[in-house]
Amino acid sequence: MLYKELGRTGERVSVVWLGTWQFGSGSWGFGKSYGEKECLEAVYASVEAGVNVIDTAEVYGGGVSEKIVGKAVKELGDRVLIATKVAPHHLTYNGVIEACERSLNRLGVKTIDLYQIHFPNPLIPITQTMRAMEHLVKTGKIRYIGVSNFSLGQLIKARQALKSEDIVSNQVRYNLLQRQPENHLLPYCIREKINILAYSPLAQGLLTGKYTSTNPPRDIIRRINPLYTRRYLRRIEPLLTELRNLGEKYGASVGQVALAWVFAHEGCVAIAGAKNREQALNNAAAGNIQLTSDEMEKLNKLSMQTRPGAMEIIQTIPRILGF
User: Fold this and answer.
1) Which of 3, 34, 44, 60 is catalytic?
2) Can 60 be counted among the known catalytic residues?
3) DSSP for 145-192?
4) This prediction's pTM
C-alpha cells in the first residue's frame, strides 16, 4: 500500500480509504446482500490490506455508520484513523460542538482524527463554525480539521476564518470522468498542501466496466444520471478498453486502475466504499499500483474525449419521467 502525508501534519495515510456511506443505508438490514456483519468484515479486511483511514459521517445511516465503525475501531485500536463529518445544519458554534460529542459517543472514542464539514452552509457564518472547530482541537476532541464539497472560494474563506489551525483536506467528487476539481481547486490544494479526498472515484460504478451500451444500469439512481445513457456508454468505450489493457499489465481490474489514476495525482487519495470483505480487498489492492507518466497521459487524453454533452443530458429527461 502506498502512503501520503495528510496536509502538513506529518501523518501518513493510505492512498485508498474505506468509505462507509453504505453502512446502515436503506433498510435497517442495510441491503439484500449485506448487513452489519459484512460491514465489519469489510473494515477488518481493509485494515489488513494496509488501509489506515475509515471515512464516515453523522448522517450516514442516521448515525448507524458511525456506530459500526466504532465497533470495528474498538478491535483495531490505533491501527486506523477515523474521519467523520458534521452535517451542514449543525454548523453553528454550539451545533458543531454538540454534533461532535454525539459522534464521539457513537464511535466510542475520545478523539476524532479528522473532523470535516460535510457541506458548506451559506446561512451560517463560517467564522462561527471554524471557531467551534478550533475549540474542539484545543480541547482534544479532534486532531485535524477538514472540509467537504467546498469550492475554491469557500475553502479560502474557511482558511481565513481560522486563527491557530489550518484545513488539511477537502473531500470532493473526482474521477476520470468528472474532473472539475482540476480547473482551480486541485492546483491550489497541491500548492497549499491540502489533500483532495476523492469520493465517487469510480463514478458510481461506471469505471468498473460493469455497465456498457448493451448492458445499461436499471436502477433509478443511475437511470437519471447523464453518464449512463447508451450514447455516453458508447463514448467511454475507448477509455474502458485502455483501463482493461493497463489492468492486464498490472494484474488488476478496470476499477483498480481507475482508483490508481486518482491517487497518482499529488496530494490525492481515493475513498472507495465496500459492503463486504471481497470488495474491500479489491479496492485496497489498487493501492499498490503506480501508473507511469505515459500511462497517465494516455488516460487523460482519452478521458478528455468523454465529457458528456447536451445530448446525453437531454436523453436523461424521459428516463427521469419513467419512459
Assistant:
1) 60
2) yes
3) EEEES--HHHHHHHHHT-SS--EEEEEEE--SS--GGGTTHHHHHHHH
4) 0.92
